Amino acid sequence: MQTVIDAHNVSKVYNADTIPVYAVNNVHLHLQKGEFTALVGPSGSGKTTLLNLIGGLDKPDSGHIIINGVDITTLSANELINFRLKNIGFVFQSFNLIPVLTAKENAEFILQLQKVHKQEREKRIEVLFKEIGLSDKLNERPSKLSGGQQQRVAVARALASRPQFVLADEPTANLDSGSASNLLDIMAQLNKEEGITFLFSTHDQRVIDRARRVITLVDGQIARDTAAVPVTHETIVSNEKP
Amino acid sequence: MWLIKLAWKNIWRNRSRTLITMAAIFFAVILSVLTSSLQDGVFDNLVKNMVSFYSGYMQVHKKGYWNEQILDNSFEASPRAEQQILANKNITGISPRLESFALASSADVTKGCLVVGISPEEENNITRLKEKVTEGSYLRDDDPGILLSEGLSKRLQLHLHDTIVLIGQGYHGATAAGKYPIKGMVKFGSPDLNDKTLFMTLSSAQDLYGAYNMLTSYVIALNDNRNLQKTAASIRSGMGEQYEVMTWEEMMPDVVQHIRTDTASSRIIQGILYLLICFGIFGTLLMMMVERKFEMGMLVAIGMKKIKLILLLLIESVITVVSGCLLGIMAGVPVVWYLNRHPISLSGETADIYERFGFEPVFPASTEGVHFFTQGLIVLVIGLLLSLYPMIKVTRLKPVLAMKR
Question: Is any Cβ of chain A less than 8 angstroms from the Cβ of B304?
């Protein structure tokens, strides 16, 4: 099984000079290709911070995060942007589509950044929109789409670049149950049929119920992991040994 | 190309904001173009009044004449010197003059006046004196008559074809006296000239003052005022020590001073205008940054390089600012053209004050393209410099912080 994410001793501290608050405290995480994992925990437990660290949006104060063999903690800001573009798909809680672009253009945007040829772009977008069930909404602006449809477009955008994995921060938080269920169906299907790795941070029981692995964070530390073999620093180190 | 398309769409995402920014730039350009062309037009008009109407752009005198303007400081007319002056390619005309003062009398009134002996054809080529004839006709080369300025004719209560008597001191202390029929009336924009001037042919003046073949000045016309100093230096070196070559700026330092003072106050007004533009544009840029901060954070998060985001904002700024500037310039052209053809004309006490200082109380706008170009460019640079603010903000943007609600 191919390892996608390796996080070793990752910590993120706020107010380090006064009263240190550990948002993420010495976390070890090991995610393999094709996993469908939910990161859960109470508010302030460090879910979003950990997701941001894994996504290269923030830098840990200690530890290393290795994605596909690349230690992203050593990359410069510009290298990180480039790395995110090529390797990571993001789905945010509040959809975050560009309001002036159509659904198709929003999904295509990431491919424009990657300088993918027009024909190839068209092909990928057509397939993706078929998969998310929005082939008839290609030319609609986000304001004309429902919340659920917007989030599906956000998923299409995240997947358009064919990333190593998708990080989804509370993707169902702003959706009604029907839309949330529909979105989860699509993501589960993409995970099953195309082997796309998903890591969610969520409070939503519907997401937790669908996840094949659930990692519970409490006070910035992993309190529980339903993985067959609990991930510790020792298991990660032993996995790296030839 | 897609970046330009996105920039265009972004510009119109908030129509009001874009239109406010464009309007700020539009009005700024119109106002600054108007200020600048009115100021320049007024100065041009002033120089034209004071210089082209009478003094010419340059004059050649006998050395010392300017400090002591008496006939004894006149010089002998020299066709060779005239040819030498005319050989300069910047010079478009030369007119010999003999000027002095005399007492002008009608039946009941006597008044001091400036008697100007001219070569009618050459004088007209330089000062367009013929166009200022309002009654009667212009002088011929051998005309025994005179042209009287309107203000002076009113004071002396003289009319066309009346006779005027002149008495004064001639060359080397001789008595100058003569009577002349009034052949025409002339009107000057400059009230000072209008109230005291009288023209006769050069030969009549030389005869009146007993200064045969003598001149007090060569009045010189230029093709472009910008060549003034260069041409003056060239003539100076050619004429030799016994002559003085003076530019209109040297002859009328008060006009130069007035222009300088007025330019300085106009610059202050323009500075305030530019400051207002800055606030207008900056306000909309701040609004835009607040509105789009989250989105910018998201764009960087999903992999848009900051340099590309900066380029996107730059394209948006360039389109907005350039459009505002171009529209401002386009709207400014007919306004300036209209004010050139129909100058703002003062009346009442203000006009009297202007006239008392010897200025024509009209404000024509200058149609020189340089005003449109310069003011458009200044506003463009201000707009683009202010656009650096969002770009600097982007360089410091942290996606995680930007995306915090």
Answer: yes
